[in-house]
Amino acid sequence: MTAQRKFVSVAAELPGAKTKALLERRQQTVSKGVGNNHPLFVERAQGALLYDVDGNVFLDFVGAIGTINVGHSPAEVVDAIKEQAEKYIHTCFHVGMYEPYVALAEKLAEITPGDFAKKAVLLNSGAEAVENAVKIARKYTGKTGIVSFTRGFHGRTLLGMSLTSKVKPYKYQMGPYAPAIYKAPFPYPYQRPASMTEEEYGEFCLKQFEDFLLTEVAPEELAAVIMEPVQGEGGFIVPPKSFVQGVFQICKKHGILFIADEIQTGFGRTGEMFASTLFEIEPDLITLSKSIAAGLPISAVVGKAEIMDAPNPGEIGGTYGGSPLGCAAALAVIEKMQREDLPGKSRVIGDAIRSHFRKLQDEFKIIGDVRGLGAMCAVEFVDPDTGKPAKEFVAALLQACYRKGVVLLGAGVHSNIVRFLTPLVITEEQLQEGLDIISEAMAELSAVSAGAGKAD
C-alpha cells in the first residue's frame, strides 16, 4: 500500500497528456543524441520540488546533476539576476568590462583552498573550464602531457572526452581523441581485496601510480594531473585520503601541476565548500561550475596567480565567458551558502541518506555498497549471488521511483549505481519522504523478482 504523501503528487498515468504532446514535438525537432533520463517537462521548480506541465509534483534528488545545491529558484538569486538584467545583460568582458566579473574573481580567490595569491578566469561550462585549465598548465610548464584517471569524467568536448574514461555513451565512435593524454588507475575502495586493510589499499594504489610514471609516461613530460577528488559520473567513488595526498606530493616533487576538478564536488556538495579541503590539499588549479550560480551557465578556473598569468592577453576567455547574469547569480549563491551554512547541511543530509540505506542492506542483499562524502552519496547494486553489477535493477528502480514521484539518476561505468544530488535546502521531511518512496520501490521490485524466480 502506498503511504500518504505530503510533498509528492503524481497521477496514476505518467507521462501526462501535455508531456506527451511536448515529447512528440521534441522528437521532431531535437537531436536524439540529447539524452533524457525521464519523460519529464518542468513548468516550474522551487527548492527541492519539480512541478511538471501536467500538474504532477516530484521530489528532485538529482538537482540538475548537481547544479542546484542552493535549490531551485532561490529568492536571493532570482532578485540578483533581475537587478543585473535591468542594468545590462551582456557587454562581453573583452569589450566592456564590468564589476561583477572582478567581484566574483575576488570571491573565488578568497574561498577556494590555498594560502597563496590566486587569480581566476570565468567561462561558460565545466568542460570549458577543464579545457582552459589544461591550456594554462601547458602554457605555464611548457610541457604537454596530461594525466587523468580511470572512470573519471571531465566533459564532452574533444579534450574533455579525451580525459574522460567511460566509452559509452561519451566517446564511442567520436575519435580520434586529443593526444598526450594518459589514464592512470584510480582507487575503488568497494573492490578492495579482502586481504588488504584500508591503509594498505591506499599504499597499493599510490604504488600503482608511481609505477604508472615508470611504465606509461615520464614525469618530465607531464604538465598536469587532473583529478576529481570524488569521482562523479564514475560512481561517486571516494579515494583513500592517502592516495590523493600522495599523488599531490608526487606532483610537487616533479613540478607537475595538480588540477582539482571540483565541478561536481564543489560548493558544499561534500560537506565542505570544496572537497580538496577534506583531503587537505591545495591544488595549483581548480575547475568550478555546476552549482556556482544556481543553474546559470558559468564556470571558472582558479589557481596560483603566477600560473594563471602564464597565458598572454587573448589566449584564454570567450565571448560569453563570465556573463554578468552568471556573476551576479554566483555572488548571491556564495553569500547564501555561507549565511545558511549549506556545507554543514550537506553533512546532515549525507548522514541521513547513508544511514537509511545501510539499515536496508540486511533486507536488500542487492545493495552492495553505500558511500559518499557529505550529500554526495551513492548506492551500488550488485547481484548478491554473483557479485556482478545489477544494471537492470537500477534501470527499473529509476523508472519506478519516477512513477512514484522521485527523480533519481544512475552512475558508474556499469550503470549499476544510484547517485544522490539533492538540493542542500531540502527539508528533513522532504528527504525522508523521498527515501521512503525509494525503499517502497525497491521492495516492490524485489517482490516481483522473487516471484519470477519462484515461477522459474
So, CATH architecture of the largest domain?
A: 3-Layer(aba) Sandwich
The main sheet comes to:
7 strands, mixed
Q: So what's the oligomer here?
A: single chain
Strand tally: 15
Q: What's the end-to-end separation, in Å?
A: 27 Å
The percent range for helix content is 40-55%
**Rg over alpha carbons:** 22 Å
Shape: globular
The helix count comes to: 14
Low-confidence stretches: none
Instruction: Quickly count the domains.
Output: 2
Please trace the helix and strand order, writing H or E for each element: HEEEHHHEHEHEHEHEHEEHHHEEHEEEH
CATH class of the largest domain: Alpha Beta
Instruction: Give the percentage of residues in beta strands.
Output: 15-25%
